[in-house]
Specification:
- The structure is a single chain.
- This protein has 2 domains: about 35 residues; about 100 residues, no CATH class.
- The protein is of the alpha+beta class and about 160 residues long.
């Protein structure tokens, strides 16, 4: 009698385990589907940016903090005025834009332009950080990258890759 009860208990445990696995799989599949959607843009945006490539913890903390540098131009040979436009768009977005809103810039002299948007923000112990996506298009070629910039209460923006 004891062995029979034990066998029934083991069968019940197997059924519970299988059902729980199915439920967890269904829930995780739906959760992953929501994450893979392109973030929505605010009303009036000109075009969608590519889906951001998110950085893992190892990439976020692998590079030392740095000021503005040539990496921000995504290996494009922009003219001085275009570099200034891109830099102003990034700083404007970091300082003023809401998450998801796009700041765009365009060159009047040639086929160059770009867009910047903040995709995530989080507080730190002495300020806050914003993860932003930068997109540049030059003569039909286009590239984008995701960066993180942190601002301490007493210092300017520090850019991390």
């Amino acid at each position: 009698m004891l062995v029979k009860d034990w066998m029934e208990g083991m069968k019940l445990l197997k059924v519970i385990t299988v059902l729980t696995s199915i439920i967890f799989f269904a829930v995780s599949t739906n959760a992953l589907a929501d994450v893979s959607k392109t973030p929505t843009e605010t009303e009036g945006a000109l075009a969608k940016l590519p889906y951001p490539k998110m950085m893992g913890e190892s990439e976020i903390w692998s590079a030392p903090g740095m000021m503005w540098n040539g990496i921000q131009y995504i290996r494009f040979n922009l003219k001085k005025a275009e570099k200034r436009q891109h830099q102003q768009a990034v700083y404007h977005t970091l300082n003023n834009a809401e998450i998801g809103s796009i700041t765009a810039w365009y060159s009047k002299k040639r086929q160059a332009g770009g867009k910047v948007r903040v995709i995530h923000q989080f507080p730190t112990s002495d300020g806050y950080c914003r993860v932003y996506q930068s997109y540049i298009k030059l003569n039909g070629a286009e590239r984008h990258m995701t960066n993180k910039a942190c601002k301490r209460l007493t210092n300017p923006w520090v850019f991390l890759k």
